[in-house]
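Proteins fold reproducibly. Take a sample protein:
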Amino acid sequence: MKNLFRLLKITVVTFIGGFIVSSCDDGDIIITNFEFDDATLQLCTGANPNEYVFFKINSDINESISFNFTSTDYEANVTTSSGPIEIQLSPENPLIYRQYSAAITADYFCSTIPPAEIEVVNELVITEGKAILEVIISNEDDNDGVPAEEEDLNNDNNLENDDTDGDTIPNYKDQDDDNDNVLTSAELPNSIPGDDSYRDTDEDGIPDYLDDDDDMDGIPSIEEDVDGNGTPRNDDRPDIGQQGIIDYLDDEADISYFPDPHPEITLIPNTVITTFRTSVRFVELVAPRNAELFTETTFTMGSREVTESITN
């Protein structure tokens, strides 16, 4: 990887809203393309609202590529469902290539004032063209212990079609697949040495995590939360069933012993681990007049992912 970039003298450097704007003389710039495929795309926010900078750093030869922009439409964890965000390049929203006198880190872009000992020795600023940003959800999972591919119960390669409990949340995003107020992750272990199959208490062929009546006693497991504390996992009344066996797993726990009226049932919240991917590319690029050898009109800066836990 080698970029030729010479004969440009930096004369003024100022800082505006945490982003760098510079002026320079009319020296010739010799550069043919941007080579940052192996670098990680990073993001920082500016000092003012809705200011951002995407950047990549090539530490091998002390260079960077950055896109400084302001946008009220872009958020790293909100999908661009209405279509990609298009931002016109301008002096306020520039694409900047730089070489430095020494190695830089992310602090160079993320701090209000970059390190004073770092000198910009060469620079190319492109202010004509268009940036295209698109945010998609690249992965979603309920982290319930069941691999997403196993939750395609219909075997139709469409996870959205599998909703065992009919709560409008597909199984692969549902932490409680049978809506019994017991997390799927808690219903998987079977406590049988050497057997890693999912637990099936009543041996009806339906694993507990998909069975809304785990002991086949005719009482939905969710209704065996006698104390109404939000989970049936701690209700074990030996006077009406088998001692040491939780009521919702005990087919001898009789519904006639339940209080009247029955406690109000509050469903446990559902958390989905969601990964958002932002892709950044540029089209219709026009290099400044003193960079005649740079003829690229498109540039793909890359993509960046963030993962969040979203509870509803």
In short: The CA atoms of residues 114 and 228 lie 57 Å apart.
